Amino acid sequence: MSITTRIGLAILLIGATWAAYPAAPSAADWEPPTPKPESKDWVRLSSGEWVRGAIELLQYEKMYFDSEEMDDLEFDWEDVAEIRSARILTVGMIGGKVVSGTVAMSDGIMRIRTGVGVEEYSASQVLAIIEGRPTELNYWSLKATANLVARTGNTEQNDFTSFLRLRRQTTRSQFNAEYRGNYGSTDGESTVANSRVDVDANWFLSRQLFVTPLAVDLFNDEFQNIDLRSGLSAGFGYYLIRSKTDWQINASGGYQKTTYISVGEGEDLTVNNGTITLGTTLEMDLTKNIELDTEYSIRRTLGTDETTLHHSYFMLSFDILGDIIDFTASVTWDHNSNPKTNAEGITPKSDDVTMAYGLGVDF
User: Fold this and answer.
1) Quick one: average pLDDT of 107-133?
2) What is the pTM of this model?
């Protein structure tokens, strides 16, 4: 057999072997293994990419996903093409129906395997997803801070400020209760003494629009000559942004009763007013470890002793121990355009500014 013939046969043999060998699957053909109970979730994006981790939350058209390799991720719901999860998830639908079970979604259809069978829904009808089964604890969150400054020696000084926010959030409603307190003394004499309580309940008419059927606020400040200022109001609000950045505006009307510690001769100790209030709040993550909370409101009282009240609060939280323990820095500004002169003829200043630094918890 000639050398040319041998080379030709070798080439034919190599070609036949290559043709018989199965081609490697392309990235587009790759699929993850079937999830096992309590294993990680798989999500495929519209780009064809698969990510592995844990679905933490779907809310306001945003999915929050925890990847072991890439940390926290955020996807637009419209970009999620497929889901495979053997963990128990709770899915809330437009219209209020809630279903719990393992989830598989593809081709725009979500299939939820419950304890009695498989239920199918259009992905466009999905409003929210949370981990686990719906329990009351899942609806609640708490943020609290405490700041203490103590000095001793030539001057004995103690200052304490605190902030507490308790919130219950569902897809249809929200309840908020907040407390702020500031107390201080120098050489045993009180120099700061005020507290504020705000409670409101909101009902969502859509993802952005909500009504506030009832809001209550209480305020007292020894050095502003206010024994108790209490208000009742109702109104509405609108979320300009609703995701991990929450920015809303609100308006309300109501009633306010103010009782002063003391007043000049001939002055009323208690004053009743109608009120109009405009406000805004912004909560956002500036970075993975820095969170911003800020709010501003302006209230105009109507009737006797008309007054304009401004309130502003600004707080930065820096994660120092996971997502639970924070270092916080805050500034509070209150302005009263018409402070009440007391029985001793002393008129409080219109502006009060408080700066505080301390530790907080958030869960």
Assistant:
1) 90
2) 0.75
Amino acid at 116: V
Which range marks the domain in which residue 150 is found?
138-362
Question: Cα(169)–Cα(361) distance, rounded to whole angstroms?
Answer: 18
Q: Which two tokens mark 357?
A: 């630094």
Structure tokens that stand for 74 in this block? 């955020």
Band (219; pLDDT cuts 50, 70, 90): very high
How many residues are given for the chain?
Answer: 363
205 lies in the same domain as 320:
yes
Residue 11 lies in a domain: no
pLDDT tens for residues 14-42? 554 444 444 444 444 556 666 555 578 99
Statement to judge: residues 117 and 197 lie in one domain: no
CA angle in degrees (0–180, nearest 5) for 47-48-52: 110
Q: State pLDDT tens for residues 54-73.
A: 998 887 788 889 887 787 88
3-class DSSP assignment, residue 164: strand
Burial environment of residue 260 by CB neighbours within 10 A (0 to 12, 13 to 18, 19 or more): buried
Residue 154 lies in a domain: yes
Give the total number of structural domains in the chain: 2
Largest pairwise CA distance in the chain: 129
Closest CA to 121 of 146, 148, 101, 145: 101
- 129, with CB counted inside 10 A (0-12, 13-18, 19+), is buried
